[in-house]
Amino acid sequence: MNKPLAYRMRPRNLDEVVGQQHLVGKGKIIRRMVEAKMLSSMILYGPPGTGKTSIASAIAGSTRYAFRMLNAATDTKKDLQIVAEEAKMSGSVILMLDEVHRLDKTKQDFLLPYLENGKIILIGATTENPYISISPAIRSRTQIFEVKSLQEEDIKQAIEFSLSDTERGLGNKKVALDELALLHLTRATNGDLRSALNGLELAVKSTQADEEGITHLTLEIIEECIQKKAMVHDKKGDAHYDVISALQKSIRGSDVNAAMHYLARLVEAGDMLIICRRLMVIAYEDIGLANPQAAARTVTAVQAAEKLGLPEAKIPLAQAVTDLCLSPKSNSAYLAIDAALADIRKGLIGEVPDHLKDNHYSGAKELGRGIGYRYPHDAPDGWVPQQYLPDGLKNKKYYQPKATGKYEQALGNRYKQLEERQK
């Protein structure tokens, strides 16, 4: 049986890795390790289909080490022993261990001494947060790197490469991929390159070529092969972003019916990751301090949606949209950080006042660091008049409270009281 396209197109070296330039780009940590021939064990964590196995494969292809792949959940201790024996004979082996968070104690105890002496260079892959799901014993012997969702341009680049590669890809076939079909393939797979390539291969193999031997892939064919509908068959493919924008603006405008309509369009298109990310942005950008509990409830709803998956995910997502729509609105915190960032980018920084500087080191006192700092917790109400901003910015006001919710009204009253007392 032929191996899937996504498997065949795994990178042979770091230059072929799609995305993840924060790890494998020029001068970045993994490339430095490979170039210096100083590989150490690592854990790669991030969403499915983003290149964790690809990075491991590329590292192996860029070095002289043997490369073996196992799964922590399904492979046995005996499988690990075989890898260990090979490592003893060859010097070192790179072991790609998928689902590393499911490594049980017996396998873990067996691996630890080999990680210590460098005989096995572990590259663990997981979709779980390793700081929570992986044992401290393994974590202390590995470096932890986050693998991020691929961008549309990354997916597009990989698709085009697979269509031109005659050795491993689909380059031996004449494939005409419509512009809208390519656009949908890059967007609807939500950064999952494996899904994009698998959908592409299915489309190519299941579509009859025309009289000239050309396999013509339309938007409708790609929709069927990845089982996700496009928003609207418009010429520029802008509908995807238009619907996301309309969802946020409807929630901001407190129109729950319009927001539910746009949510339904995104759900029907299968864009759950987009929905979840956008709802969390809206919760903090548009509702903000007017109703902080709505933001907390939105995070909980998103977590539930991610656990459930579609179609059931629509239920907590609809609840979050209703909650956000009918909540009071405030963008005061959003405006405050933007105003502060604008000053920073204009060079309005200034020096930290001496009394606020760190004084936990030898010689700090002689430099005047921390002298005159007043500890607010020593005051009866936890506040003392004291300058915190640099001299050139000491009268700046970034936060402007709004009166659109009881919580921010209370914050605003406290803010004004402190301003008066500071004066």
From TrEMBL:
List where this protein forms a coiled coil. none
TM region positions: none
- Extract the GO molecular function terms from the UniProt entry: ATP binding; ATP hydrolysis activity; DNA binding; enzyme activator activity; single-stranded DNA helicase activity
Does the record carry ATP-binding as a key word? yes
Name the Gene3D superfamilies on file. Answer: 1.10.8.60, 1.20.272.10, DNA polymerase III clamp loader subunits, C-terminal domain, P-loop containing nucleotide triphosphate hydrolases
Provide the AAA+ ATPase domain boundaries: 38-150
Q: Which UniProt keywords apply?
A: ATP-binding, Nucleotide-binding
* GO BP annotations, alphabetical order: DNA synthesis involved in DNA repair; DNA-templated DNA replication
A Pfam family recorded for this sequence = MgsA_C
Query: InterPro entries this protein is in?
Result: AAA+_ATPase (IPR003593), AAA_assoc_2 (IPR032423), AAA_ATPase_RarA/MGS1/WRNIP1 (IPR051314), ATPase_AAA_core (IPR003959), DNA_pol3_clamp-load_cplx_C (IPR008921), MgsA_C (IPR021886), P-loop_NTPase (IPR027417)
- SMART domains xrefs: AAA
Give the family this protein belongs to, as stated in its UniProt record: Belongs to the AAA ATPase family. RarA/MGS1/WRNIP1 subfamily.
Q: What is this protein called?
A: Replication-associated recombination protein A
